[in-house]
Automatic annotation (TrEMBL):
Residues 1-24 form the signal peptide. GO terms for molecular function: chitin binding; endochitinase activity. This is chitinase. InterPro entries: Glyco_hydro_19_cat, Lysozyme-like_dom_sf. Residues 174-196 form the Glycoside hydrolase family 19 catalytic domain. PANTHER family: CHITINASE FAMILY PROTEIN, CHITINASE-RELATED. Its EC number is 3.2.1.14. The keyword Hydrolase applies. It catalyses: Random endo-hydrolysis of N-acetyl-beta-D-glucosaminide (1->4)-beta-linkages in chitin and chitodextrins. It comes from Linum trigynum. CDD domains: chitinase_GH19.
Length: 352
């Protein structure tokens, strides 16, 4: 009986443990077991969108490759830009070196040409002030001048008919007959746009009449390209523009540019070596006109408002006061003739 009393409680304990298991198995709620395969998720159809979004595709590869190419192109652009910047820096250094030699190889703005203190005549540019006008009129003129709209267009005044009316008087054997052209003149004026920009059409026409009156006289109606009586014309006091060995600075071109102190700065302004190569003024059709327009701007234009007589003094003052009366009369005659042709009055103070 002692052993039975010991076994019975033990049996009740086993029954208490086993009974829930037997009931669960009978109802089909047995706990699931975990296999090795269940450690890896196997997506079903409901996971399709998620799978598609998570997997890489060909379009992504193309886009990534495009971005890489863009980055490479941007890198190449940066390298090219850096190269251009280096080129610009080198160009600026070259310009500085050219400035030291005194001769400019890059195009320059003639409004900023260096003034020469050694020349006989005044080389300071005209400020073209209009003291005889009220403030509103002066402001209007200055505004139109800044816009480049003052005066009638030069090519409308210096027509082919006008140019030919001068050069037709040159003999058939004249060098100038084949050297001076209207086209070369108009090309040269592009480098001196202030020429023919006066306060009115009448003033513009008077300036052009004055210019061609002196050209006609100096060249014998566009016959001569060089001075007949050649000389060295070297002023050794003009040390800023020293004469080159063996070179002569006699008159050349439409206004017969003369003296080393004119050839030097003229060449600098127009990108040629006027001291070592003065002959180019008689060989290059456009440079010949540029040289004359340069001298006109520096020495003649500033005195235009004082009358035609002042322009004679600026070009060849030795003719004035009885120095060469026939020459003065010749210049005045052509000036009056051209003013009449252009339909403007010549004004006062014509002869010196």
């Amino acid at each position: 009986m002692a052993k039975l009393s010991t076994i019975v409680p033990f049996l009740f304990l086993l029954l208490a443990i086993a009974l829930p298991l037997i009931l669960a198995a009978a109802s089909g709620d047995a706990a699931p077991t975990t296999t090795e395969a269940d450690c890896f998720h196997r997506p079903d159809e409901s996971d399709g969108d998620l799978l598609e979004a998570s997997m890489p595709n060909d379009d992504d590869d193309v886009e990534l490759e495009g971005e890489q190419l863009d980055d490479e192109g941007l890198f190449e652009d940066d390298m090219e830009l850096e190269s251009e910047q280096h080129d610009d820096e080198a160009l600026l250094e070259d310009e500085d070196e050219n400035d030291e030699t005194g001769y400019i190889v890059m195009p320059t703005d003639h409004e900023n040409d260096e003034e020469d203190d050694d020349t006989e005549s005044s080389l300071s540019p005209s400020d073209e002030s209009y003291s005889d006008l009220d403030s509103d009129e002066e402001e209007d003129i200055n505004g139109r001048e800044a816009a480049g709209k003052l005066g009638v267009a030069v090519d409308k005044v210096v027509t082919a008919a006008f140019f030919n009316s001068i050069i037709k008087n040159a003999g058939s054997t004249c060098k100038g007959k084949r050297f001076y052209t209207r086209a070369a003149f108009l090309t040269a004026t592009k480098s001196y746009p202030e020429f023919g920009k006066q306060s009115s059409d009448a003033a513009t026409k008077r300036e052009i009449a004055a210019f061609f009156a002196h050209v006609t006289h100096e060249t014998g109606s566009l016959c001569y390209v060089e001075e007949i009586k050649k000389a060295t014309y070297c002023d050794r006091k003009a040390t800023k523009w020293p004469c080159a060995p063996g070179k002569q600075y006699y008159g050349r071109g439409p206004l017969q540019l003369t003296w080393n102190y004119n050839y030097g700065p003229c060449g600098k302004a127009n990108k040629f070596d006027g001291l070592k190569n003065p002959d180019i003024v008689a060989k290059n059709k456009v440079i010949a006109w540029k040289a004359s327009l340069w001298f006109w701007k520096k020495s003649v234009r500033p005195v235009l408002k004082k009358g035609f007589a002042a322009t004679i003094r600026a070009i060849n003052g030795g003719e004035c006061n009885g120095g060469n009366r026939p020459a003065v009369e010749s210049r005045v005659k052509f000036y009056k003739k051209y003013c009449k042709r252009f339909g403007v009055k010549p004004g006062s103070n014509l002869s010196c």
